[in-house]
TrEMBL record:
This is Thioredoxin. One of its GO terms (biological process) is cell redox homeostasis. GO terms for molecular function: metal ion binding; protein-disulfide reductase activity. Coiled coil: none annotated. One of its GO terms (cellular component) is cytosol. It holds the Pfam family Thioredoxin. CDD domains: TRX_family. Belongs to the thioredoxin family. Residues 33-144 form the Thioredoxin domain. Keywords: Disulfide bond, Electron transport, Metal-binding, Redox-active center, Transport.
Amino acid sequence: MSEACHIVCPACSAINRIPTSRLRETPKCGKCHKPLFSAHPVELTTASFNRHVSRNDIPVLVDFWAPWCGPCKMMAPAFQQAAAELEPLVRLAKLNTENEQQIGAQFNIRSIPTLALFKNGKEIARQPGAMSKEDIVRWVQTHI
């Protein structure tokens, strides 16, 4: 029997137990039957942040951003492209710090965009500033 990992569904937030060997086989949520990976970052809120960061067994890369931020807008397509390349071994997520100020304050986000990489609910790396898709992928791979 292969090792399994827990993946939080981006659609309904149900926790799914998936054999690690089957992560690349486009697994679907056992509750809502939607794909667990869609090559798009997950939009997080205060209500969903802790569940996604602490209950996913794969690393979670969070883009702390705001809609008024020019560099955030410029980096958004690169972040989405990185999601297509890094999934299913890394979950990419976005948190709007304008709407979710409590989480931004909790993690002492002082500049945006800021990328924070979480593993097992703990922040393991942080990188402020806009990055290209290649730089995002390279940075993540050096930390996982």
